[in-house]
Amino acid sequence: MRREFTINNRSSLILEGGGMRGVFTCGVLDNLMDRGIRFAYTIGVSAGACNGLSYMSEQRGRGKFSNIDLLEKYHYIGLKQLITKRNIMDFDLLFHTFPEQIIPYDYERYARCRERFEMVTTSCLTGKACYYEEKHDPKRIIDIVKASSSLPFVCPIAYVDGTPMLDGGIADSIPLGRAHSLGYTNSLVVLTRNRGYRKPDKEGIVPPLFYGKYPALREAIRSRNRLYNEQISLVEAEEQAGRIMVIRPEKPIAVDRMERNTQKLLDLYNEGYALAAEIDFHPAK
What we know:
The protein is of the alpha/beta class. It has helices at 23-34, 47-56, 62-74, 79-85, 91-102, 107-112, 138-148, 176-181, 215-222, 224-240, 262-277, and strands spanning 3-7, 11-15, 41-45, 116-123, 129-132, 158-160, 163-167, 186-190, 244-247, 279-283.
């Protein structure tokens, strides 16, 4: 079913995380890049931040190549990584070897882009979301996106400007409110779960050995399910009222956060591309 979206100077693109489910977002973004669709403001969380960076630098196919082709070659996710590197993902490969050597990130093109881009992290000190906008310092860009992607329990704490940080999805999984607070109210939201999904209605468990120095972070992790479900309910209400547009997987999700089956990933990528292709974008008159 075709839909219409009017692009104006208040348009925003909201990119949820979701680990390897983010290949759905890669498909959406590749379709947008194929058609030259840009938003005044984009904000990404975790995998959404990683994929959003490639969108901002207009490197079409980079996200797909990193998440599917290179996964098959380098096997950079899994228990082996957790045991050998104390990280469920090989961050050295993902945030250094990939962008520096294998599939170089175009920092110069990103620095020249006129549109705004924010990445979301969670402060270990406050348990609150932090929103970073950086275009000119490659090291700081990597520090921010690495922090945004550092999952609790299975990834080490990351640092941005000396402050301990973890995954942005802990404190703000779907930063629609952030976009609206900045005046970007004409929103397209890309989710990586199908309609009606909710997290279990119970507090998250934080084992005593984890994050003893950061009580606010522990509370944020415990409250994560409730907050996520509240954000999804808000998104659905705004969508129902016709105030925002949402792209989400329509088929039952067969991809989990740490998926390594490349055919499943490719299918989800193709679904994202196809669903984005059904939207007709028009400039404001």
